[in-house]
Amino acid sequence: MGFVKTLSSIVTKKKKNGAVLEVNFDTNPAALMTAIVECDWETVIKVCQDDPDQAKIWHHRFTTLETGPETLLWRNLPIHAALMYNAPITALMAVQSAYPAGVRNMDDKGRLPIHLAFGVDADDEILSLLALEYPDSLTVTDDNQKTPFDYISASSKRSWIKELQSSFLVLNTDRLGTDITTLEETMVELKGTIHDYDAILTRSSESIETDFDQFHGTVRVTEKFRVVSQ
């Protein structure tokens, strides 16, 4: 489920020690988020070094409708914003180092930072940074059931990955069909074998009964011969 709330249901959250956890971007943005939006990467790095807790602060923005309830436009951490604003690797490393767990957090649409990284066609260094911190993120689906790979556009330098995925899917589908066919053939052979085995058992049973009858017949003949001989 996506993060869908009205303004009245979100308030600035605080830890027990008074550190801010979430703010409204339009009324009380943290210095780190402001620097990211302004693409001031030197300041981003400095803030992360001087006050790393700012990397943990969630920011949200709402619609400003004159009538009706205000609805959420977006909600994310600085690491999400840094990716959307195409932060260089040095700035992104600073944000990630300040709050490593950020790579495991989803925005209001259920997207991890790595979803956004693939969406903006980030450099390999950035993708490696995110994937190494959270390897399982590559298979996580967002609210639209999309994995990070699904955000690769046709014009992306990684479009070949999607082509490879499609080929792999077709290959596995074909293989599954072949496996099913083989299984069905094996079952037919097994049924035939069972049928043959039943026939063998039937013939063996009949043969045993015949032999038993012949044995009793022989015994009776022998008894008669013994009486006559006496």
Instruction: Compute the average pLDDT.
Output: 80
Give the neighbour order of strands across the main sheet.
1-2-3-4
The residue fraction in helices comes out at 40-55%
Silhouette: rod-shaped
Largest sheet: 4 strands, mixed
Order of helices and strands: EEHHEEHHHHH
- Contiguous low-pLDDT stretches (5 residues minimum) are 1-12
SS-based class:
alpha+beta
- Oligomeric composition of the shown chains: single chain
Query: What count of helical segments does DSSP give?
Result: 7
Number of strands: 4
Report strand %.
5-15%
Tell me the Rg in angstroms: 37 Å
Task: Give the distance, in angstroms, between the N- and C-terminal Cα atoms.
Answer: 102 Å
Topology, please?
Elements: E1 13-14, E2 20-24, H1 31-37, H2 41-50, E3 58-62, E4 72-76, H3 78-84, H4 89-98, H5 113-119, H6 124-133, H7 159-229
Parallel strand pairs: 2-3
Antiparallel strand pairs: 1-2, 3-4
Helix pairs in contact: 1-2, 2-4, 3-4, 4-6, 5-6
What characteristics describe this protein?
230 residues, alpha+beta, disordered N terminus
Quick summary:
This protein has helices at 31-37, 41-50, 78-84, 89-98, 113-119, 124-133, 159-229; strands at residues 13-14, 20-24, 58-62, 72-76.
Protein architecture, described:
By secondary structure, the chain is of the alpha+beta class. The protein is built from 7 helices and 4 strands, in the order E-E-H-H-E-E-H-H-H-H-H. Strands 1-2-3-4 form a 4-stranded mixed beta sheet. The termini are far apart.
